Amino acid sequence: MSFKPMKPLPKKKQEVDLSKADTIKCKECENYLFISSFVIKRISALMSPTGQEALVPIQVYSCGNCGQVPTQFLEGSGLDTK
Ligand SMILES: [Zn+2]
């Protein structure tokens, strides 16, 4: 009885042409350069699975010009942009 170890399937290399991809722009000022920032959520001891207060950073990107954070980055953070 022979047992061949399964080889992992070769991953298909996907070439993505980024020049054809959408560029996210700031809705406020059309700027397309963003700075990575963090929204930090404080998990209270009651909500925390470990029973201890914890700080959880969520990475978002804010406009490098006006500081506006596109709403799509705020999904799941519980924050609203005006
Ligand atoms: Zn902006």
Describe the structure.
This protein is mainly beta and 82 residues long. It has a domain at 23-73. The chain is 5% helix and 24% strand. It is built from 1 helix and 2 strands; from the N terminus they run E-E-H. Strands 1-2 form a two-stranded antiparallel sheet. The mean pLDDT is 87. The structure holds zinc ion (ZN). Zinc ion binds at residues 26, 28-29, 31, 63, 65-66, 68.
Distance between the termini: 67 Å
- Radius of gyration over C-alpha positions, nearest whole angstrom: 21 Å
Structural class: mainly beta
DSSP strand (E) fraction?
A: 15-25%
Q: Give the cofactors and ligands.
A: zinc ion
Q: How many helices?
A: 1
Calculate the mean pLDDT score and round it. 87
Helical content band: under 10%
Topology (elements, then pairings):
Layout lengths: L33 E10 L10 E10 L7 H4 L8
Antiparallel strand pairs: 1-2
The structure holds zinc ion.
Summarize this, please?
The protein has 82 residues and is mainly beta.
